[in-house]
Amino acid sequence: MKEEVRLYSCTPRNFSVSLREELKRTDAIFWPSCLLVKRCGGNCACCNYSCNECQCTPTKVNKKYHEVLQLRQRTGSKFLQKSLTDVALEHHEESVLVCAKETQKDNLMDT
Q: Cα separation of 35 and 20, whole Å?
């Protein structure tokens, strides 16, 4: 039973992300176009807080570099320029459930 709770609770898990969306780049095509990264996710229904809205929040984040093929339009040409490039993507190593209302209140206090 504990293993099932751990599997479905707030833990880093694999998510497929689009490189164009993640890097906010519209001037290039990447191959592969999607990569797996660790991001917080899971069931927030197991929240121990006495609030209605919990969210899974990263507590430890690392940047990892992935080598991908980048294709870009050459200036003044109809041909594509190919290059291998390293892209840094955020991977969540640890996560915790946080009451969303507490997070909003904390953000208001910081301003």
A: 11
CA–CA distance, 107 with 50 (Å, rounded to integer): 19
**What would the pLDDT profile of 53-98 be if each residue is shown by its tens digit?**
778 889 999 999 999 999 998 878 888 999 999 999 999 999 988 8
What global pTM score does this model have?
A: 0.71
Distance CA 63, CA 88 (A): 6
d(CA 109, CA 111): 6
Task: Say if CB 37 and CB 62 are below 8 A apart.
Answer: no
Cβ-Cβ contacts under 8 Å for 96 (sequence gap 6 or more) = 10, 56, 57, 59
CB 64 within 8 A of CB 36: no
